[in-house]
Write a structure and sequence with these properties.
The protein is mainly α and 151 residues long. Helices cover 74% and strands 10% of the residues.
Length: 151
Amino acid sequence: MNKQAQFMASMSSLIDKTTLLEHTQLDEQLAGYKPAEVHTIEFIGNHPDANVTIIANAMYVTRGAVSKMTRRLMKNALIERYQKPDNKKEIYFRLTAKGKDVYNTHAALNRQFEARDAALFTETDQSLVDDTLAFLAAYNQHLDDIINQKK
């Protein structure tokens, strides 16, 4: 198996394992919410003034998919739409109190998952971690370039 295939297999295995380890807690504490809903709530919570285009570009989905998701989240009183006084054309989204509860629960779970793995990251030679992060950044940029070429 060449290095690229090894890398992709390792990444796939890593994602599968973290999903397996985190699935039960996420299902218990965020029961009734789909992963895409939670990730959209997380994005809106982390990005004030999020609109459909910003969310779609960041999550690599269509604007139509975001519109459908935001309608569902508004219907469930997790987010609300608003307009700025100086820009009545653009629609933005923000979390409601219920949405903030989901956001905070998800953030707390993420902190628990990070704590679970913290020892590995502190015990590993930091130059190895830095090199891995640099490679992942370069690979992400490569994929972004391909995505942008297709637009």
